[in-house]
Amino acid sequence: MAEIKIFNPDGMSKPAPYSHVAYAKTQELVFIAGQTPIDATGAIVGKGDFEAQCAQVFANIHTALRSVNADWKNVVQFTSYLVRPQDAAAYRTWRAKTYPKMFAGGANPPHTLLIISRLADEAYWLEVQTVAAL
Q1: Residue ranges making up the domain that contains 123
Q2: CATH number of the domain residue 60 falls in
Q3: pTM for the structure as a whole
Q4: Mean pLDDT of successive 10-residue stretches along the chain, which has 134 residues
C-alpha cells in the first residue's frame, strides 16, 4: 500500500478544494485516461447539463480506481479540462460540495484545471485525467 501525504507547504497559499503537493512513496502507479461523461453503454450523460457531466466523469474515475483495488484515497493528482470558461466557477463549487465525501479530512489531491478550445466530442464539457498510487 502506498504511503501518501497530501499537503500545502508553509509559504504557499491554502487552496480549496485541492492541495499543492501529493507525496507518494509507492511501487505502483495507476494512470487513468481522461474520463468524459460517457456511461458504460457509450452514451453521453448530461448533454447540456454540466453537473450531470461532472457526476458521470467522476463515477467513471471511481470505476477505474476500483478495477485496480483502489479508491479515492489513492488519488495523487487530477488534471481537468473544461471547454467553457463559464463552467470554471460551477466546477469549483461542484468539487467543494463533492470532495468532502471523497477525500476524508480534506486531503484533496493536487488538481490542475485547464480551459481549452475543444474535447473529442463537442457535447463533452469536461474531461478529467487521474494518477493514483497503490
Answers
A1: 31-133
A2: 3.30.1330.40
A3: 0.94
A4: 93 93 96 98 96 98 98 97 97 96 93 97 97 97
